[in-house]
Amino acid sequence: MGDHFQDTGLMFGDLLEYLRQQGFLIGVDSHLRLQKVLGQVSGSCSPDELRTLLCPILATDKKQQAFFYSAFDAYLGLKQFEAVLPEYAELPAGNKDVAEPYTIPLQARRWPYLILGLILAVIVAWASYYRERLAQFTQGGTPAPTALTPTPTPGLATTLTDEPVPELIKPIRWLALFFPPLFLSLYELYLYNRRNLLLRMLNSSHHPYIFPIRPAPPSNSIFESERFYHSARLLKHRQVAELHSLDIPATVNETIKGLGYPSLRFKRASKMPEYLVLIERVAYRDHLSRFCDELIRALEREGLLITRYYYEGDPRVCFAPAPEFLKTNPLLPGAETGKNERAIPLKEILNKHEDCRLLIFGNGEGLVEPITGVKAEWTSIFDQWKERALLTPISPTEWASRELRLSSQFLIAPATLDGLRALVDYYEFNELIPPQKWPRREPPLSLDVDSPDILTSLRIYLGEKPFQWLCACAVYPVLQWELTVYIGSLPHLEQNLASELNILRLIRLPWFRSGFIPKHLRRLLIQELPPEVYKEVRAAIVNLMNQAGQYGEAIEENANQLNVAIPRSLTSILQSSLRNILNIRPKNRIFRDHIFIQFLESRPSMLGLSLPAGLSKIFYPNGNTALRMKLGVRILLTLLISLTVWMAAPQIVRAVKTEQALTAQIITSPAGALPSPLATTSPTPPLNATPSPTATATPVNSPQPQPSPAAVTSTPVAGQTPQEFPSPTTTPVSSEPPPLIIITPTPVSAGTPASLPQPPTPVADGGTEGTAPPERGQTVPLTPSLDTRAICPKVRIRALNVPSFTAQNTISYSLNAEATGGKALQPSRYLWRLSNSQARIIVGQDTPTVSILWPAGNKEAAELTVRVTVTGYNFACPTETSWTVQRVPATDDDKCCASCGELVCCANPGYCISCGECGSVCCNEDEP
Amino acid sequence: MAANEHFRFYIGNGETIDQRGGELPPPEKSIEDNHPAQYIAEKALSDAVNVALMLSQPLLITGEPGTGKTQLAWSIAYELNLNGPLVFNAKTTSSAKDLFYRYDALRHFHDANMRQEQPRFTADDYITYEALGLAILLSCRPGPSRPHLPDGLSGRGPVRSVVLIDEIDKAPRDFPNDILYEIEEMTFTVNETGRSFKVDDKYRPFVLLTSNSEKNLPEAFLRRCIFYDIPFPDKEQLKLIVERRLKLSEEFRKNMLNNAIEHFQEIRDLLLKKKPATAELISWVRVLDRMQIDVRHLRPGQAEALALTYSVIAKNKDDLETIKSTFSN
Is the pTM of the predicted complex or chain greater than 0.95? Predict the structure, then answer.
């Protein structure tokens, strides 16, 4: 069972517990009566029929009756749901409305997602297919028509590898054309469905499920004091009723005294005093109204008979309070407008409660003419009540002519415990304190919100600790009574801060009447808050949200101002929503509380603002970032994505090629056997040969003797030495489709002459095989280059797969590095998350292949430089490190060029290479 | 006299009905048949009654005026062959004692002083047992231990009765609190005589309380009650109620009744100070039947007559104006 319907072990025990939390009068007797009824009707009626049998036991008024029916339907729906779908048996209550149509709507709603999954599968299959094609293309799909490329030029290799393959660009561009709009369409379809659900929710006649987020009530009530209890006790004193009855003992006595002459004596009956309370409410979150409300509730708990009504400015129209269990989230439609409250004319109230004592909690502004300030004529209606009082939340310090004028009709007193005491004195002893004689102890409140000294004024008015309380209240975007009291009881603030005096001072501030503090003032106030208090307040609020629903045992009736509501209609549509209802975990199922969502999702900014208002209005409806982007913006973004992919298609192809090459080289890097032609060829080109296909040499007696134009154009320029590589710009480039970086092995045909010289065997001790890196675990410090504020990580090269000995001019390497914290840098992915910002790793200037420039005069060693650049949004941290790579000494297995004696290593069987010195060809005729 | 003016008996011009050649018909009961057999209880209401019977607890009924709260007591007594109902109408001056008995102290005093030559009267002679007191006494066998009951009840018993405490919310706040124990234990004591009476559990009375929800009842009292709020009937239920309660002409029942009920529901949907209830509907339909007015197909001259009939429905001037102005066209 979930939180909502807690299993108590009794039949319907969980339902009763839930109802009790909603304000039903559920006690042990309710359980007993229910079990008795169930025992008598068991087996003779269906579960549906129990609805009308159990309701009379548990409901005590019309609204509870309606609420019970809906709650019972939900409960019964769950039970049926559990029976139908055993896999959900562990889930708690649901909704009868959702019990029957579970399957059909759910299946009907699944099709968009099935289609989406299908499309994704097709995309993946398509991508795999083309990837394979690309691999085939790069490995052998493209014929290498050239026979010989005697002069290896790294620049040429680079240029050639940069050229994209047109055949691949076309499908990528088709992808760019169709798939972003397709995804946008699916997304819009999804949104359309969600909108429909929302509309159903709004049109639903059912009340939403409401899950109260309730701060734990403070251990000590604000009014818990001897003064309060004394006043409450005296306010309960019975008063003389209108009813007269014969006083028999007195009559008998008088008759005896009169010698038998009848002398009747009557006595007046007594009755409990009843109070009619009208509470002024400026706004829904008016703290003064809630303060008065709390005072009245405290008196009710002491046994006073009180009938409450609210009015908004003009008491001629009052509102009966809605039952607690029907009060909704303040953010729900109707709550702010008092939709759930019934308007009642004052005359009607007068008819019902004429014999009550009238208490008006309000500042009396609505009782006087707005211009002249004299008492309004219509207020004569209050004369119908014999005892009437006006308890004003305004401090006696600020009482003026209005209070004096109204004192002719009402007993004027402050809405405090002192005011209660004055009431008692008036009712019991007929002692009246005129307004001008009330002690004026409070400092006057005069605030200029725009004044730069506002904080100083507030600090003086409130005092230091209550001022911190005010600052803490500014953390949450709106002011709510329960939250204000809850914050006042946090440990970092002063103990017993939430006293009557402090609360009154605080809530007399104008923002506590409207429920909002202006944003600029909030910012100022939060800045005044010590960091540890700010953290505690923020954590307390989040914690409060997370613990929603866990205070069921100690819920005060009125403490549900932070409700989170989940519409019932959602439950009948989506299985996921149903799960939400069944699980009833508000902390992760919050649909409607926008303030809460905004609060939680806000970036670490003081006020949770993420975009300037101007920009927000451009991108978001009404500038509200909690909503999704505008449709036009979404379409624009989709088109931009399509355009970007379309334009970047060549680069994408090149990137794929590079990755292919890199992958192939990594595979072949371990020393030992060469398992496949792909592995054997690409990473181990012979000495003086570039890894480009132009360096691929077909056998001398190849059936394709005609050299391609590429072969011709890639012939080295006369006079160039292998040490003086031409720059890429000066390298002649073939007009043919450029070959790729990895050489396709050209096996020696069966007709290869056996007389050809045997190629040298591979170098056993490293050589062309990448073995252990020269430096492992070396820490390379990085220095910020663009932004000095950036903090550059230290990159530790964990493994640099560079051979320490090589017989080639060009080597491939892979970088395996990690940053501080152990996050590996993946060169093939280029994206790396570092401290919540994305950094791009550029390895070796985007190519894993580097050329080695053998120093003139020293052909045995060369220095290899690797650059690692960690770039972020606003910084770049480049570094470079160097390794010395030694040239492989000649061994017996190496072949010397027959023409010039230069060392030529042709270790790969079936390969031919050209001598860098004289251009003559050396072939290894061993079987590959 | 015009055909549609056959109901105009009083003209107000000094001309007598004899001079006009007319005749005043005999007075009619406002409702032809108020027999409890005609009462229709919806299933939820009957369930509530059954639960209250099952648990032997009082049933508190609320609902709009005219929805049949009081009539339910007669229906229960009729269907279950119980005695009663014994009715107690709560007043603003009612006290808990009044529910069981009343002691006429003045008469006792008077008799004690003025009729001293006659045999002495005891306090028992001046005690009148009220609804719940009667029901408790009737649950016991007649005998010397049982006080004298009014005529018609003196020899009865033991029987189980239905007790109706009507409009309990009119009573003072103390009233429900004061009867908590008595209504649960079904026992009371006559202070003037010192005698206590307790119900025979086998014949425990069935207590039905009605309330117009004008005042909130204490929680302690509500906890001891079975509760049901009678919703206002829907169209079909209204039609059934009207057909059972009124002997309508065949033509009206077949062709005009549906229209009348629909129009009545439209009127209820208006923003009125006092919404018309079932009782108003019955009266109104009765008038429409007599005048043969089809509210959807008015014949010439009937519009004015229909406007006149709204007086049956509206209970104050503002509501009457609202209804007339809304449906004048």
Answer: no
